[in-house]
Specification:
The chain is an alpha+beta fold and 143 residues long. The protein has a single domain (2-142), classed as Gcn5-related N-acetyltransferase (GNAT) (Aminopeptidase, 3-Layer(aba) Sandwich). Helix content is 31%, strand content 36%. The protein has 5 helices and 7 strands, in the order βααβββαβαββα. A 7-stranded mixed beta sheet has the order 1-2-3-4-5-7-6, sandwiched between helices. The longest helix is centred in the N-terminal third of the chain and has 12 residues, at 25-36. The mean pLDDT is 93. This is N-acetylglutamate synthase-like GNAT family acetyltransferase. It comes from Ensifer adhaerens.
């Protein structure tokens, strides 16, 4: 397993593995933008891209995992955890945040297993599906 920064040559591959991009032009544009800003990282296994993630610094000046997307055929193989652990190791701020919907139990379990703690909730982003905010203190890794 190898994690590297995504390049523009990866755009079509990431769009193809993203479950939303097929029917959402805004997501396709967002993927390109994440790559252009250098915030998109990909996981390769056996020379094939199986997942991507986005680490940004727009959340009150802290690191924020904006996206973790694992290809359907690559799920339950540890790629999401590999990205989260990578982001906790390379985050440039003392705190790293992430969020997911209350309905997304898989991501909640993943973040909990990676040492993230619930930090709060945001209502009214998605109808009847609050966003849960999680926090990880980088000192846990670097300490």
């Amino acid at each position: 397993m190898k994690i590297r920064s995504a390049t523009l040559a990866d755009v079509d591959t990431l769009i193809a593995l993203d479950t939303i991009a097929a029917h959402d032009p805004e997501r396709r544009h967002q993927i390109r933008s994440w790559i252009e800003t250098g915030s998109c990282h990909i996981v390769e296994t056996n020379g094939s891209v199986g997942a991507y993630g986005v680490l940004a610094y727009h959340f009150f000046g802290n690191g924020f995992i904006e996206m973790i997307m694992v290809a359907e055929h690559s799920r339950r193989q540890g790629l999401g955890m590999a990205l989260v652990r990578h982001f906790t190791a390379v985050c440039a701020t003392p705190k790293l945040f992430a969020s997911t919907n209350l309905s997304n139990r898989h991501m909640q379990t993943l973040l909990g297993a990676a040492g993230f703690r619930t930090s709060g909730y945001i209502d009214n982003l998605d109808e009847n599906d609050p966003e849960i905010i999680f926090c990880f203190h980088a000192a846990q890794v670097r300490g």
